[in-house]
Design brief:
Order of helices and strands of chain A: HEEHHEHEEH
Oligomer: homodimer
Strand order of the largest sheet of chain A: 2-1-3-4-5
Largest sheet of chain A: 5 strands, mixed
Number of strands of chain A: 5
Number of helices of chain A: 5
Radius of gyration of chain A: 16 Å
Strand content of chain A: 15-25%
Helix content of chain A: 25-40%
Structural class of chain A: alpha/beta
Chain lengths: 164, 164
């Protein structure tokens, strides 16, 4: 099995960002994910589809994991890396455990809703039947900028500096 | 909004058990779930489909939540109760939080993989944007017997008492 390098993760985050941008254009929260196999090849990817499909589980990570399992013909995504633009929520972290991925790579941290930021480190809970590695903050600037731009537009809030 | 009674939960667990039995006949782990609305009416239900569909997220709870959201035309399942025959895993507990259910009712406890049994009580974590109630052990005997029978058959292990 090949060992992926940090540059592979950065490249894959660029791919995930394309899915995030596409989701934003459909008025979904611009979060994107892709799954790469042990050779660094993209298996599949997706943006958020929660609002457009009315699916409470329509997060980019869940859709990507399900689609990839379908493509590979196995729900066990062993050796694979999930790359996502935002720190995953509890549901998505659980789905990664269930699908037995090797590594999670995420972009921006989510202090309010991110599983790790809230202290739920179950990716390394040895009582569970699978553990996986986590790398956070890859392309942090680009991934968080996309989200903050989206929410600023949604709120109609523009911060103009007043001339002195 | 009507207040459901314990007898409503027991009746709904009977419905979830039918989905569990149907899953077992398809050689899936016999776990079943159904979602009931605030009037106690079943919106939808499902058994496990992880193996047959090759879906890492193919747990009875996730399928039921997604199907119900589709039927109701809204991913917010506010006021609804998810009834499931086994204590949910971390992924499914996360999905219940995401879909904003009112109450989780489960049957058998799962000391090895159940989110609550492992100490992850995020259904009552007030830092999150939604919390929900949990009632465990409803029809505990029937729900756990169905699972232990299935695994005993799978292992080909039958405990015969030797005659003295």
């Amino acid at each position: 099995m090949n060992q992926l390098k940090f540059s592979d993760y950065e490249w894959a985050m660029g791919e995930a960002l394309k899915f995030a941008e596409a989701a934003g254009r459909k008025d979904e929260v611009p979060i994107g994910a892709c799954l790469i196999d042990s050779q660094g090849k993209v298996v599949s990817g997706s943006g958020n589809e929660k609002e457009s499909v009315n699916d409470p589980c329509g997060h980019a990570e869940i859709i990507t994991l399900r689609k990839s399992a379908e493509i590979l013909g196995d729900w066990r995504l062993e050796g694979c890396t999930l790359v996502v633009t935002l720190e995953p929520c509890l549901m998505c972290m659980g789905a990664m455990w269930q699908s037995r991925i090797k590594t999670l790579v995420f972009g921006a941290y989510d202090p309010k809703g991110g599983a790790l930021s809230l202290g739920y480190d179950f990716h390394k809970d040895k009582r569970l039947n699978h553990t996986f590695d986590v790398i956070g903050g890859v392309k942090h600037y680009e991934t968080s900028r996309l989200l903050s731009q989206f929410f600023r537009q949604k709120r109609g809030q523009y911060n103009f500096k007043k001339p002195n």
